[in-house]
């Protein structure tokens, strides 16, 4: 009985606090502060990771496939600028990574080995002719 009262008190306390981090657009607008918005195209999940690091309150509104409208508090503009610069660096470094998939590496290695085997046989034949 006593545990249920404590849970209800905690729930009421959490309900009165303003939410932080990722939230719905409605909750963000209910904070009572002015908000700004920016268009974001790309991976929203990687932005979530960076935004949590910078403690930014934000909300996504999906406008199309892989396109979002990102709302954030106007008072957090400096944190948002830093957050966006880190996010853009991550996106650019992902685009620049020229890692070759493992299957292609295996295919290249197999092709290279198949090219080397005939050369070794020709070399062995030349050595055999010289011994005569």
Describe the structure in your own words.
This protein is an alpha+beta fold and 132 residues long. The protein has a domain at 18-109: Ribosomal Protein S8, Chain: A, domain 1. Helices cover 61% and strands 16% of the residues. It contains 5 helices and 3 strands. It has helices at 2-16, 25-29, 44-53, 77-96, 102-131, and strands at residues 35-41, 58-64, 67-73. The chain has a 3-stranded antiparallel β-sheet with strand order 1-3-2. Helix 3 packs across helix 4 (77-96). The longest helix has 30 residues, at 102-131. The protein is elongated, with a radius of gyration of 29 Å. The protein starts with a helix and ends with a helix. 8% of the residues are buried. The mean pLDDT is 80.
What is the arithmetic mean of pLDDT? 80
Q: What general outline do the C-alpha atoms trace?
A: elongated
In sequence order, what are the helices and strands, one letter per element?
A: HHEHEEHH
Largest sheet, strands/sense/barrel: 3 strands, antiparallel
Number of strands: 3
Strand order in the sheet with the most strands = 1-3-2
| Alpha-beta content class | alpha+beta
Count the helices. How many? Answer: 5
Q: Which residue ranges are poorly predicted, with pLDDT under 50 across at least 5 consecutive positions?
A: none
Distance between the termini: 102 Å
CATH topology (fold) name of the domain at 18-109: Ribosomal Protein S8, Chain: A, domain 1
Cα radius of gyration in angstroms: 29 Å
* Shape-level CATH architecture of the domain at 18-109: 2-Layer Sandwich
